[in-house]
């Protein structure tokens, strides 16, 4: 590891710049809406890219290539179907949902559903919260399981 001092200095520099940028931008955040949806000042294309980056996180980078490796090129139809669904959702639903969210003054989809059905708002929020926590638990468990397996598998040589 002859470059360890260089690597360490790059990592420290990156962390200092990242924290500095976060502190600088954090001064602009005054409300929950400012934090979650940039106070409704974020351009539509930026919100769409952010939503897709969140939605396609690990499954597109790990799950889809793994499925293609296991089943062959036939698995590419999964990616084609996902792209078609995403484009359809953006074209048919996204602009309406953005207008509705502004009308109801909500920041999240579960908050929108709860506010839209006012008489059941409390129970929709509770069910939404439990659903998110339930599925996030298994998502986090699968991520930690994969990292644990890769850390104890001696024949896998990772090059950084």
Question: How would you summarize what this structure contains?
Answer:
By secondary structure, this protein is an all-alpha fold. It has helices at about 5-25, 30-35, 45-55, 55-70, 75-105, 110-115, 120-150.
Description:
The protein is mainly alpha-helical. The chain folds into two domains: 30 residues; 120 residues, no CATH class. The protein has seven helices and no strands. Helix 6 runs antiparallel to helix 7. The longest helix has 32 residues. It is extended, with a radius of gyration of 21 Å. The mean pLDDT is 81.
Helix content: over 70%
Rg value: 21 Å
Number of helices: 7
Assembly state (oligomeric): single chain
Count of domain modules: 2
Beta-strand segment tally: 0
How far the N terminus sits from the C terminus, by CA atoms, comes to: 12 Å
Furnish the topology, listing elements before pairings.
Blueprint lengths: L3 H23 L5 H6 L6 H12 L1 H15 L4 H29 L4 H8 L4 H32 L8
Write a concise keyword list for the protein shown above.
160 residues, mainly alpha, 2 domains, extended
